[in-house]
Structures are given as structure tokens and as C-alpha cells.
Specification:
The chain is α/β, with parallel strands linked by helices. Helices cover 37% and strands 19% of the residues. A hairpin with a 2-residue loop joins strand 16 and strand 17. It has an 8-stranded parallel barrel, surrounded by 9 helices. The two termini are 29 Å apart. Helix 8 runs parallel beside helix 9, helix 9 packs across helix 10 and helix 15 crosses helix 17.
């Protein structure tokens, strides 16, 4: 049930299955940012990771205990108890309970060959492991999801044993039994046939579906399972995952809502879909392909000639869905269409009413398009976006101005590619009002040295800068074909006592790009703390778009 209505539950595995994508390595701050974004979008269950596997996942569950989600429930992932061991004695299951997650997902074998060859145990013992584990977790008061690993391979090999695995979880009280196409080799008609048979065998039991995309059918397989009676869909944002990836949960949600008329909790926020996709892409470092369904830059793009002329008269001829429903927009390759509404909506989140301020929204939009063409992105850089708006509104006042900076990297020991003792030193000359400050800072890297020097230079004028902490730093080459001459985009995540925010810098020089992002992180952070506790950007007294302050700190943290 979703909000009192029958619907499909959404289960996101980006923070666990998605992180298994080659090249993806999420920090704790990355995982928290993604979790908050998915929560705001309306995802029902967010799988946070494997608390028994690494300290970062343990820290993630601990952090969410202090920063509760507004809608989603967080799930901890693990395995059934070990062979020959009682569930109550299994350290992995105890770790799942100790992390405090309200939902626990355990994976167990459902393919006879996997049980005998990989697990190396008896078929009956595997059934005991499933039953005891689910029973133990249910007795502890958890919502339990049982992932039946390799279920479809198991069903085609020995359907009676695959169903026996499901029965063991069902009789133990599993809230949802999610059937997994673990190697991604199934096709939609087989998925629908098998899921329908399983659902008929266990009336009243909740079933879910977990698909990989090795045959290119993960989304289609997921939808086929829903047609056959599955009520929970698993997937990852943008379909990232091991090998070729998982079912793209965002595409699945759009198809359920727009094509199948099946509601999800994310349905009311469907216009955020494209923004969510690109936000998570920026955090993970895996771009949304231009031709990706719904959220890709070219998903609703039209090139000249017949299409371009027809689209103005009859959009449905070449657009299978209204792009605005998913937060995207139609685009002519030779003349991009405006997106004023999205700019105004994002400004509103930051407490800036562009209409009331009499802002030239088209000029803002043109500025953003120009900057994005040069490599900027504002999907994870709300701090930079807010400063851009303030410049257009005439309310921006720099906290300081730069005279010059210099960075020196010193590596005294010649150990070649294995060198680990390099140190950086930065000297900064800045002006705060009529005063000139010179400061030097050191760090393991040039950005850390710049951050240290800048803080020393402005601490006398802005002692509250001590409350700002640089928690994440990412570099991305925008034209890798140019090698060391490529344009570089740097994104910085900064934390204060009300949450985190991002800033962005772009340059052909990585140090200059880093400096630009760093300066904006400090300026925006200072503005968030200014104006006698007002929670709007810069304070309502400095923002001509607001007559009075009505937002709370809690609201702004949730929107960051």
C-alpha cells in the first residue's frame, strides 16, 4: 500500500549494487547525498550497503540514525546464516540487527547447482539456512526481504527445489520475496511466465523482482514481472551496477507511471526524475548517456527538417511522452527551447522568488546554458547556483577579493611513481574591504594547501569560517581526448551545522578550477550563516526576492 492506494513499491540498490559498477567508489558523504536525494524523490526502500563488510557502510547507517529520512526506509544487506550455524549465532546476521536498519535484506541460494557447487552444502541445509535466518530477523521486529539469488536459473534447472526455497522464506514470514535474475540472461516472456507461476503458488505473499541487464532486458524484465504480479521492483539509478548494470529504477518508475498506469510513491515527484538522474550521475562519476530513456540529454532532441517542423504542430508524433512529466525538455539541435520553469523551481527551493524579484529569468537561463556549454553543472552545486542567482539579482557582494595566489608542490625524495611524501604549500594575498591579508598554508595536496591558506587569511574577518568543512572533492576531465590540455571540472562538497552543499569550478587549469569552487564554497557557506539566523541564502534582509523569513533550518537541510 502506498499512501492508502495500491501501488508498486520501489527498492533502490544504488548504494550497494550500484557501487559494484566498475570505476564507482562512493565516499560516506556521497552515499548520504544520494540517499537524501532518493528519499526526496519518493523511493520507498533505500539499500544502504553491507554493514558487516566495511566501516564506511557502518558509518552510513549510524549517520542516518541521526539524520532520519522523510519517506524512505533504509535497508541493510547481508546473507543467510552460514551452513552448519544457527541464525542466532551468526555474526553477519547480528551485524544486520546491530546497524539499526528497519529493513533487512538477505540473499540466499535458489539454484540447486549453486547450493552444491558454490555453497558446497546439502540442498536441505540451504533450506534450513533460509528458514532460520528469516525467522530470526522477523522475531527481532524487522521488515525482511529475501533475495532469491539465481532464482530463474534455478527454476529452469529444478523448479521444485527453486519453489522449495521460496516456500522456506514464505513460511518463515518474509515480507517480500524478491526473485533475482542474477546473471541477467532472462528474456521478458520467460520472466512473466515464471513469476506468474510463482505468484499463483503463494497467494497473499509479496513478491519483488531484481534484474541485471546482461541481455539488455532488465527494464523490460522488471515490467514483465510486475504484469505477472510482482509488487516490489528493485533497481539502481541510471542502471549502474556490476558488469553491464542493473535495471534502471528511474526508467522503471517512469514506465510504470506513464505507460502502465501503476502508481508509485515517486509519482507525485516524477518531474524530478531527470534532475535525480543527473545528480546521481555527477556524484558517482558515471554520466547519464545522452540517448538514455527519459533523462538523457537527447531523449527528446529533434534535428532539423521534417521532425523539427512537425514537432511544433504535433509533438506526440515524435515524443512518446511529455518530456516535462519527467523534468526533461524537448530540444532542437540548432535552437534549444527554454527551461524557465525549472530555473524558477530550483530557485524557490533556495528561498528565492525570481518572479517577485522581477528577475530576467531568460537572462539567467541563457547564462546557465552558456556556462554549461563551457563545462559547468549545477545538479550538485546548489551553492554555485545560488551565487549565480544573486549576481543576476544584484544582491551579490563578495566576501573578499583575490590579489594573487601561488601553489608550490615539493617532492624531495626521488621514488618515481611510488612517491608518497610530496607536500604542498600555498600563499594567498586577498583583500577584505580596505584590509589586505597575506597567509600561507600547507597540505598534502594543492587544494588542501589553498583551503588552509584561505581560511587563515579570512579568519580575522570571518571567524565563523571554522564551522565550514570541506568533506569531498572531485575532478572530472570534460574532453578526455585532449589529455592534459582538457577542460577540468571540479566539484566540492562542504558541510556546515545544517547539512552539506556543493560548488563547482571549471578551467583548463585544475588548480584554478579548484580555487573557483573553493571560493564559492566559502562565500556561500558564510552567507548561509549570516543575517541573524535567517535560513534563506544571504538572509532575507539581503535578498530582495523575500520580504520575510518563513523557512526553517530543517527545511533547508532537507532540500540541500
Amino acid at each position: 500500500m502506498i499512501g492508502g492506494l495500491e501501488g508498486v513499491l520501489t527498492y533502490d540498490s544504488t548504494l550497494r549494487d550500484g557501487e559494484q559498477c566498475e570505476g564507482v567508489n562512493l565516499s560516506l558523504e556521497d552515499k548520504l547525498l544520494i540517499a537524501r536525494r532518493l528519499d526526496a524523490f519518493g523511493i520507498d526502500i533505500i539499500e544502504g550497503g553491507f554493514p558487516a563488510s566495511n566501516p564506511k557502510d557502518i558509518a552510513f547507517f549510524k549517520a542516518l540514525a541521526d539524520i532520519p529520512l522523510a519517506h524512505a526506509r533504509v535497508a541493510a544487506f547481508g546473507s543467510t546464516c552460514r551452513k552448519g550455524m544457527a541464525a542466532a549465532d551468526d555474526p553477519g546476521l547480528r551485524d544486520l540487527l546491530a546497524c539499526g536498519a528497519p529493513v533487512v535484506t538477505i540473499v540466499g541460494k535458489a539454484w540447486d547447482a549453486q547450493v552444491t557447487l558454490a555453497l558446497r552444502t546439502e540442498l536441505a541445509e540451504n533450506l534450513r539456512m533460509i528458514c532460520d535466518s528469516v525467522t530470526y530477523l522477523k522475531a527481532a521486529g524487522r521488515h525482511v526481504v529475501f533475495d532469491a539469488e539465481h532464482f530463474f536459473d534455478g527454476y529452469e534447472s529444478d523448479p521444485e527445489y527453486a519453489l522449495a526455497c521460496v516456500r522456506a522464506a514464505h513460511e518463515a514470514g518474509a515480507d517480500s520475496i524478491d526473485l533475482c535474475d542474477t546473471n541477467g540472461g532472462m528474456l521478458p516472456f520467460d520472466i512473466e511466465r515464471i513469476v506468474a507461476a510463482v505468484v499463483a503458488e503463494f497467494p497473499g505473499q509479496g513478491f519483488g523482482i531484481h534484474c541485471h541487464d546482461d541481455s539488455g532486458c532488465a527494464v523490460a524484465n522488471t515490467l514483465a514481472a510486475v504484469r505477472a504480479g510482482a509488487s516490489q521492483v528493485q533497481g539502481t539509478a541510471n542502471g549502474i551496477g556490476e558488469r553491464v548494470g542493473n535495471a534502471d529504477l528511474l526508467t522503471v518508475i517512469a514506465d510504470l507511471e506513464l505507460k502502465m498506469g501503476m502508481p508509485t510513491a515517486a509519482g507525485s515527484a516524477l518531474k524530478q526524475l531527470t534532475a535525480v538522474a543527473h545528480c546521481i550521475a555527477e556524484v558517482t562519476g558515471v554520466p547519464v548517456p545522452a540517448h538514455h530513456p527519459y533523462s538523457g540529454r537527447s531523449a527528446f532532441a529533434h534535428k532539423g527538417g521534417l521532425h523539427a517542423s512537425a514537432i511544433a504542430r504535433f509533438p506526440q508524433a515524435y515524443e512518446h511522452a511529455d518530456p516535462q512529466r519527467v523534468g526533461n525538455s524537448p530540444r532542437m539541435v540548432v535552437s534549444e527551447l527554454a527551461g524557465k520553469a525549472s530555473i524558477m523551481q530550483k530557485a524557490e527551493v533556495l528561498g528565492i522568488n525570481l518572479a517577485a524579484a522581477g528577475a530576467d529569468v531568460q537572462a539567467i537561463l541563457d547564462d546557465i546554458k552558456d556556462r554549461e556549454a563551457r563545462g559547468y553543472t549545477y545538479e550538485v552545486a546548489d551553492g554555485s547556483f545560488a551565487l549565480l542567482l544573486m549576481r543576476h539579482l544584484g544582491s551579490y557582494a563578495p566576501a573578499f577579493t583575490l590579489e594573487s595566489f601561488r601553489v608550490i608542490v615539493d617532492d624531495r625524495e626521488d621514488t618515481g611513481a611510488l612517491a608518497k611524501d610530496a607536500a604542498s604549500e600555498a600563499t594567498i594575498k586577498i583583500h577584505v574591504g580596505e584590509q589586505r591579508f597575506v597567509a600561507t598554508g600547507e597540505g598534502a595536496g594543492p587544494v588542501g594547501a589553498l583551503d588552509s591558506a584561505l581560511r587563515r587569511a579570512i579568519t580575522e574577518s570571518y571567524p565563523q569560517v571554522a564551522e565550514l568543512e570541506l568533506v569531498d572533492y572531485k575532478v572530472r576531465l570534460l574532453d578526455e581526448s585532449q589529455g592534459t590540455g582538457a577542460i577540468t571540472r571540479v566539484t566540492i562538497t562542504t558541510a556546515d551545522n545544517r547539512g552539506t552543499f556543493g560548488t563547482v569550478g571549471v578551467s583548463g587549469n585544475v588548480i584554478e578550477a579548484s580555487w573557483n569552487a573553493l571560493v564559492e564554497s566559502i562565500e556561500y557557506g558564510l552567507m548561509r550563516m549570516s543575517a541573524n539566523g535567517c535560513e534563506h541564502v544571504g538572509g532575507c534582509g539581503r535578498d530582495p526576492a523575500n520580504a520575510s523569513c518563513t523557512r526553517t533550518a530543517t527545511q533547508e537541510v532537507q532540500n540541500d
